[in-house]
Amino acid sequence: ITYADGIGWHDAKVEPYAPISLDPAAMVLHYGQAIFEGLKAYRQADGSIASFRVTANAARMNRSAERLAMPYLPPELFVKAITELVEVDNEWVPAAGGEDSLYLRPFAFAIEPALGVRPAKEYKFLVIASPAGAYFPRGVKPVNVWLSREYVRASPGGTGAAKFAGNYAASLVAQAHAAEQGCDQVVWLDAIERKYVEEMGGMNLYFVYGSGADARLVTPELSGSLLPGITRDSLLTLAKDSGLAVEERRISTDEWREKAASGEITEVFACGTAAVITPVGSVKDKDGEFTIADGEPGPITMALRDTLTGIQRGTFADTHGWMTTLRK
Ligand code: PMP
């Protein structure tokens, strides 16, 4: 779908996957107006195809657009684009080790050819799709994470709450640094004090305090510089449904280390569309390494994972109206 000032969004079409052409002066290549979304369409037991919280993705896309001075995309158009793509692309073969879902990547970028820093007047919105592979090839195995004090992902007033391409470009060197330390993922801290936990590369974080009937969840509050994950939001609801108390607040790396050592923090997991829920097994920074309990996936992590994937696959009741049938 193409956008031009004065005309709006127009010329929607589904085309075979192929390279696209861009003017060398296309503003996205110089000034970086590029945003995206990520969601999945799941094949249901009856053969129909349904997406999870597609309107939440459409809403977040518009919040990202607003932050990047890009045009509003009516949510109906977002859903229609996805529905029409899935209509054509409904016979995917699940990736090896992956689940039976189609990963959908809606994205928008500035195509107007112009040199000069200002919002572009022309954009493209595209959706591409690919069978979802195993995000962590080792399966539901705990990941080990690196607390990044050298680099920050986002700062107050910046673009951290937007799904903005540049945020990901800025994270690459930190991810490489984490890998050099033998870690799977980076955990980002707040930009000012480098003390409070924000999120993990591509996922939000949850901490389980206590166990059994006394268990409660803590997740970093939406500081303005972390991405408001749709999985994070869904888990707030599912936790409340199951009677688990949840706190959204700041949590420092000192608290994490101390309460993991005392056994008060019993489980830590990361959540996002791609990997759903992934346990965090151990944490490392320049001062050393510590594990979360015995380093194995915990019961609350796995129960929440089962509930969420059950709703997505249609085996659990969708009591919140999160699933949208894209194709019968
Ligand atoms: N944080 C970042 C930086 C992400 O890229 C993602 C993936 N979209 C998430 C968190 C998790 O968000 P969601 O649950 O909407 O996939």
Short account of what is shown:
It contains seven helices and 17 strands. With 328 residues, the protein is α+β, with helices and mostly antiparallel strands.
Structure description:
- By secondary structure, this protein is α+β, with helices and mostly antiparallel strands.
- The chain folds into two domains: 2-131, Aminotransferase class 4, branched-chain amino acid transferase, N-terminal domain (D-amino Acid Aminotransferase, Chain A, domain 1, 2-Layer Sandwich), CATH 3.30.470.10; 143-313, D-amino Acid Aminotransferase, subunit A, domain 2 (D-amino Acid Aminotransferase, Chain A, domain 2).
- Helix content is 26%, strand content 29%.
- It contains seven helices and 17 strands.
- The two termini are 25 Å apart.
- The structure holds 4'-deoxy-4'-aminopyridoxal-5'-phosphate.
- The site of 4'-deoxy-4'-aminopyridoxal-5'-phosphate has 12 residues, from helix 5.
Can you tag this structure with a few keywords?
328 residues, alpha+beta, D-amino Acid Aminotransferase, Chain A, domain 1, D-amino Acid Aminotransferase, Chain A, domain 2, 2 domains, nine-stranded mixed β-sheet, eight-stranded antiparallel β-sheet, 26% helix, globular, binds 4'-deoxy-4'-aminopyridoxal-5'-phosphate
